[in-house]
Amino acid sequence: MKTIKLLATAIVVTLGIGTAKAQSSSDLEFGIKAGVNFSTLKTGLNAVSDKSGKIGFNAGIFARTGSTLFFQPELNYVTFSDKYRFNSGAYEAKFRQINLPLLVGYKLLNTADFNVRLAAGPDLSYNLKKPIAPGGFKYQDFTAGGLVDAGVDVGNLTFDARYSLGLSKFNKQLGQKANIFSLGVGFKFQ
């Protein structure tokens, strides 16, 4: 329940700042992006062992409004997977998601053709495809996390490194949370 309240507060603050920036600024950019994901499913259970994340990918669209302080909502298709052992069985959890990060950021260096930026915000995910969990356990349809992003824009190209920390559990019985590190490149239309 604490996670849901924290996430709801973060979403309201993020949307409020984004709306205020959109109304006070005519700077609006749209873009496309793609990248690779490196994932781990964290768990607190000793019965889950030999965890090894695998490489996945992401692709999506984004909008960015604001100058130095900006709001950046995104809509992404994300894949990631993880192999693990539970009791005596081996499992591979493969996920396909629609992902909605809502980022508020600040450009540390902001020129016409180059900027360095930091951003953070809630990261909401809906599972399109869920793996079969061991022992009749169930993976959740919806999960939430927190995301931090560091990026550089060179002309119309964008380069990002980000980390998504799972705040809600993918699998409540196994206590699994997804933590994903991503590297990406994009192109923005101004």
Automatic annotation (TrEMBL):
Pfam families on file: OMP_b-brl_2
Keyword Ion transport: no
Signal peptide: 1-22
Residue ranges of every copy of the Outer membrane protein beta-barrel domain listed in the record: 22-170
Keyword annotations of the record: Signal
Presence of keyword Signal: yes
Name of the protein this chain belongs to: Outer membrane protein beta-barrel domain-containing protein
Gene source species: Mucilaginibacter pineti
Lineage: Bacteria, Pseudomonadati, Bacteroidota, Sphingobacteriia, Sphingobacteriales
